[in-house]
Amino acid sequence: MGVIIVTQERGVVPEQITNSFGFFFKMITSKTSFIALIGNPVSHSLSPIIQNAAFRYLGLDLIYIAIPCKNKDLELVINSLRKINCKGLNITIPHKQKIFDLCHEVSPIANKLKAINTLKLNSYGEWSGTNTDVEGFIYPLKSLNLNNKKAIVVGSGGAARSVIQGLLNLNFSKITVIARNANSLNELMKNFGEENQIHGLLSSDEKNFNLIEEADLIVNTTPVGMIRDSNQDNLFPYGKTFWEPLNSKTIIYDLIYNPTPTALLKFSSKKGCITIDGTQMLIAQGLKSLSFWTDGLEVPFEIMHDALKKYL
Ligand code: NAP
């Protein structure tokens, strides 16, 4: 990977301009390089806010931007970014799985999950991929005792794989994945073939009712709730009726962080459930990605958290 230049002492950013809202803008010069988020959509993303705050804190001559990219353009975009002054990437919806085949090197965790959210260039100028979502997902659950508990994972895409790995790391005794799509569910189940505490069900299956009622933790890994919709039913994965059996002992974790709280979290909170949104995961995975790009640099959690609070 190309060297990231530390331009000044940590926390001191001399070349900065403050606008009327109190935000700092770093001076961009011909030496400034960049890291990008690739996905579709990306306009909801708060990664530019937290990463640019971290770059400023570390005094890196680096900016973070979000680039929308359609499925059909992914290979061209990724190969082109390799040739210009790009020092790393984050990958988001819907490319976390497809990007796997475009990496020349992957970490053991990315290889197991076949899902990648962070890339950097190796010494040959080729993309090397890893997954920081697993550690990000676990972050808000670490302080809870979830040994031998039952979880439901809603959705079977890229983030679902990281969530399942996180739940295995936390010693959940039963993990049920509920998906709308038999093909992606089967693919995901193959990834975890040796883990017999994982089960897959389609969203139309009647068994879901009892499972929802009995779950200790339910995690929404679908993007449903991200886009505002006047039809309430469209704001809930598999429709609002699906969630009726929910009871107050269940923790509801929605990976979505914008908007927050989602309709699902508001509904669950009214039922008396503990709710967790995607903000802490966003920051925790972002800290790990930053460390991957910079070969180990660290930033306090509060730097990213404060930047988010100020922005929102
Ligand atoms: P993805 O790979 O595209 O997977 C999305 C999954 O949701 C797929 O299983 C998809 O089903 C399903 N889905 C999509 N629309 C649906 C609908 N209308 N009804 C039911 N299921 C639907 O996306 P991802 O990368 O896993 O991301 C998913 C969400 O997690 C996004 O909102 C993303 O922002 C969020 N996320 C947050 C964080 C964080 O740090 N907080 C980290 C990672 C992801 P099909 O298989 O049929 O397409």
Query: Which sequence of SSEs, written as H and E, runs from N to C?
Result: EEEHEHEEHEEHEHEHEHEEHEHH
Task: Please report the number of helical segments.
Answer: 10
Structural class: alpha/beta
Which geometry do the CA atoms define?
Answer: globular
Identify the strand order in the major beta sheet.
Answer: 4-3-5-7-8-6
Largest sheet: 6 strands, mixed
Summarize model confidence as the mean pLDDT: 93
- Distance from first to last alpha carbon: 33 Å
Beta-strand share of residues: 15-25%
**Cofactors and ligands:** NADP nicotinamide-adenine-dinucleotide phosphate
Q: pLDDT below 50 for ≥5 consecutive residues: which ranges? A: none
The percent of residues in helical segments reads: 25-40%
- Radius of gyration (CA) equals 20 Å
Counted beta strands? 14
Characterise this structure.
This protein is an alpha/beta fold. 30% of the residues lie in helices and 20% in strands. It is built from 10 helices and 14 strands. It has helices spanning 47-58, 74-81, 108-113, 133-138, 158-169, 182-191, 208-214, 263-270, 279-293, 301-311, and strands at residues 16-18, 24-26, 33-39, 62-68, 86-91, 105-106, 118-121, 127-130, 150-154, 174-179, 198-202, 217-220, 251-254, 274-276. Strands 4-3-5-7-8-6 form a 6-stranded mixed β-sheet. It has a 6-stranded parallel β-sheet with strand order 11-10-9-12-13-14, sandwiched between helices. The longest helix has 15 residues, at 279-293. The chain is globular and about 60 Å long. The two termini are 33 Å apart. Residues 92-94, 96, 133, 136, 155-160, 179-181, 184, 221-224, 226, 237, 255-257, 278, 281-282, 285 line the site of NADP nicotinamide-adenine-dinucleotide phosphate.
